[in-house]
Design a protein that fits this description.
Elements: E1 2-6, E2 9-15, E3 21-29, E4 34-41, E5 46-55, E6 61-66, E7 72-79, E8 81-87, E9 92-99, E10 108-116, H1 135-201
Parallel strand pairs: 2-4
Antiparallel strand pairs: 1-2, 3-10, 4-9, 5-8, 5-10, 6-7, 6-9
Length: 208
Amino acid sequence: MDFIHFLGISIAILFVTDPSFSVELTFELEDNAKECFYERIMNETKCTLEFQVVTGGHYDVDVVLKNPNGEILYDEKKKQYDSHTFDSKIPGEYTFCFSNEFSSVTHKTVYFDFQTGEEPSQIPGIGNHHTALTMIESSAVQIHESLKVIIDYQTHHRLREATSRDMAEYLNERVQYWSIGQGVIIMAMSLLQVYILRNFFAEKRDRL
């Protein structure tokens, strides 16, 4: 994986050599910025792009996915999270970009997972014979599938935890500012009341 910077856009070029390939990345997307990633796919295969905005603003981002010919395969505006599956019928470089150009104040943290191809069989040579799997082989396959599900659940729970923590910290910050403001107002009103009461009971000197 090589990262280059061109015209202020961070580009990741990912070369696929295995039948199955997956890339997960969490990055910061500045305000008025656009981040593009490139994936080179040489074989016709099934691909899935999944993303989620973890922190920042209204938790939304613009996403565009294009094939090597520049045709748009996926285009969504201000999405918080989504998953898109497509077939890479044209070999070449596929582009998917995340844009925060509509926001001029807040930057955001974005997570994405790009998967290509199907995972190879966990039991070598299973396609060369038609014999039934042994109990150990069946258990190994089930354990592997269960671990994959657990990893996916852990990833989504971590993302939800990060989003909830960011929201809680934002609310806590707002509550602190509101409490400080209320405290200042109460102190000012107390001093004003004391000043007014002192003026009521103060002795007035007769003017000569």
